[in-house]
Input
Amino acid sequence: MRLGWIAALGLAACTTEAPRPAARPSSTGWTADERAQLTKLRMVDWLAKDPTNSWADDPKAIALGRALFYDKSLSPSGSYACSSCHDPSKHFTDGLPVAQGVGTAGRHTPTVEGAQHGPWFFWDGRADSMWAQASGPLENPVEMGSDRMRVARVLSTAHRDAYAAVFGPPPDLTDAARFPADARPDGDATVPLAIAWSGMADADRTLVTGMFVNGLKAIAAFERTVLPGDAPFDAYVDALHGGDLTGGGKLDEAAVRGLRLFLRDGNCIACHHGPLFTDGAFHNLGTPEPRGGFDPGRSVGASAVKTAEFNCESGWSDAPDCPELRYLNPDFLDFPSAFKTPTLRNVTLTAPYMHHGGMKDLDAVLEFYSALPTQPVVGHRELTLKPLNLTPAQREDLKAFLRSLEAPVRPEALPP
Output
């Protein structure tokens, strides 16, 4: 199974740093250190473990999760599925500034491709597993607007046999006195769904939540297989590694110049490294919020995950230990307005960009990094960032390199 390293969408930063002594390039034009860096950027066959999900690699769970990912009956209107915002024709994004479901969400939709890597999910890291992340859009009233009672019913009817093959026969939910049509916990106790949920017996709420979590873990098992494919860049690295000084002709001269800028003067690799071109960390770039106001980002996400219903330390997790969560400090000074570094795989096909979706194309992104025209509302900008002062030719070269990261969606990620 082909896989990347860490991941979500938009662009984090190219940076500059103090000059370093020039290394001697080889006959390929790359230094030994640079060739090592290129090798680390190539997609690799590696599937990260998920100790929170015992079914993460179960083929039957993957098949069930694939069906659920594309199933619109999970939403009350029958109009929305996970794939509505994570559309495979758009590399599992939606092409919109912010997600649109039952209502309008507050942030841009990140890609699912390669998203399984790293300990934190969402732009602000408020979930610490892929299955916990899936619970958010399902029960969010402005996204899918669903609830765990509905999910349990869909699992016990439309997906009954597939569910039983993984988790055992589903319980009987036909007693309307015990199991209302729709119900979920809600911070507002006056919401009808919350009233229905609070009226259920504790044992029945636990039963339904258990089915809901099983469905989430199946969805996550499928999403783990949604991986970027091999791109021209990967073929170029393979050719260099095999001794072809031209890189097999896989990249044109503009793309190679862009790659050199990415590694050298731009130092984009400081945040965009590994096979998925992301460090999986959180940075405050100081981008303006196009809809006004202030988004606290990681500072709120880190607090939220510590007390989340489905976090690693919850009774629903299968993990024996949760060091990432245990040592997380929500009061870390660099967290205000910091957001997760997105992958650059297929980035040219997944506009618009940033957590707010406010940069409509790569020209806008490169203009921002070239000038850094704004300052953060709260906190400080990522300290390694300096204006790149890119020439028009350099911007075109960087875009040519980024296009070399494009690859078709894998067939196994498409609807069953």
Remarks:
- The two ends are 18 Å apart (CA to CA).
- Strands lie at 282-283, 339-340.
- Confidence is low (pLDDT under 50) at residues 1-27.
